[in-house]
Amino acid sequence: MIATSSTAKLQRKGEGLVESPLSKDRTLDELKWEVVARANALGFDSCRIATAAPPPHGPEFTAWLGEGAAGEMEWLGRGEEKRRDPQKVLTGARSVIVVALNYWQGDAPTASSDTSSAMGRIARYAWGDDYHEVMLGKLEQLDKFLQTRGGIQKCYVDTGPILERDFAAEAGIGWHGKSTMLIDPRLGTWFFLGEILTTLVLPPDAPQTPRCGSCNRCITACPTGAITEPHRLDARRCISYLTIELKGSIPLELRSLIGDRIYGCDDCLDACPWNRFASISREAAFAAKPASQMPLREYLALDDQQFRALFRGSPIKRIKRRGFLRNVCVALGNVGNRADLPALHRAASDVEPLIAEHATWAIDRIFERFPTFPPVPHDLAAES
User: Fold this and answer.
1) Fewest CB atoms less than 10 Å from the CB: which of 27, 55, 82, 102?
2) Binning pLDDT at 50, 70 and 90, where does residue 269 land?
């Protein structure tokens, strides 16, 4: 049913016609449910509404920034005022439409049968196409519908000045888990969020009741201790931050804790018991691509043009070749062997100092682990 002002019943008052309050409420409900229906038709797994009020955890966000826990993510501080007041993002905003899109793809891709070739781990959300582009295209279609109903909107997918998890929790998309990730009984933790701020008034949904109880598995699962207490994350220690947001050298004391992870980390998500109910995503764009399943040493052979071609359409492209090969070198330092030394020696001479530095560190680490390992085969040594 299309919800317009003409669908509301009118009552006579003197010589004019006025809208019945009950009819107006029903019209708002009709508009809301059409928004939800259209979101479902676009492939979103959940669509719920929050009021465009200041987010409840705004003060905690400011304190978190003041502690320096955001690391180098200076853009978070630059948008602080907007994040604490949606009216500074969209004047006249009345509602926040929050959508969730499942990206769960099941078990990790099958590793290479060649045990001499170390493989790296990429966070599940980055196995396929860039979720920003996938979701924004869908939100823009929803925005066009809202425009026909007289709304003015702003759409965001993890890029705008909005505390999206606060609004998602207020709308009942999920509850705040102790890892700071949102949890939904049906989707677990494996979903992306998108938001539409609108000037339209839509009836808000109720939040979910938190159901983590005494469980602390996400906290104990973190390899670097980045979850310092329930609902508290020090981004400077988080592997996702270190491998994606950090632009320079990875701190020496944290490199060994990164293990074989080369883009992001899923450990706190994997540990959550609610994920046992997760089902495979309907969105084919998130399926794993061959680029996420290569032996580590093969990534080191990529020049800049080859890197851009390999990760075209992937979120990995945002950290560029220098950031990605930095991560690959760290992973090889942790899980590689002497068969990886020729590739690392080449990387140690890379024109990009960041890559060369981490390749040199990796070489030293491999020699520490295999001091008496048989010499590198002649044909491999010749390649270096």
Assistant:
1) 82
2) very high
Q: Mean pLDDT over residues 107-126, rounded? A: 76
Condensed to tens digits (0 to 9), the pLDDT of residues 12-35 reads 333 343 444 445 666 989 999 999
Q: Please state, as a whole number, how many other Cβ atoms lie within 10 Å of the Cβ of residue 148.
A: 9
Q: Which residues contact 76 (CB under 8 A, 6 or more apart)?
A: 65, 70, 83
Among candidate residues 85, 158, 260, 270, the one labeled active-site is: 158
> Using one digit for the tens of pLDDT, what is the confidence trace for 284-336?
999 999 998 899 999 999 999 999 999 999 999 999 999 999 999 999 999 99
Strands (E), the chain: 10-13, 16-19, 46-51, 95-102, 121-122, 153-156, 175-176, 182-183, 191-198, 227-229, 232-233, 261-263
Query: CA-CA distances (angstroms) from residue 82 to 258, 281, 316?
Result: 34, 33, 28
Contacts of 13 (CB under 8 A, 6+ apart): none
**For residue 151, what is the DSSP state?**
-
CB–CB of 182/169 below 8 Å? yes
d(CA 208, CA 214) in angstroms, rounded, equals: 17
In the structure encoding, which two tokens stand for residue 212, read together? 């983590």
Annotation marks residue 158 as catalytic: yes
Give just the sign of the alpha carbon dihedral 334, 336, 337, 342: negative
The residue whose two tokens read 């030293």 is 364
For the chain, the C-alpha Rg in angstroms (whole number) is 24
Domains of the chain, by residue range, sit at 42-289, 294-384
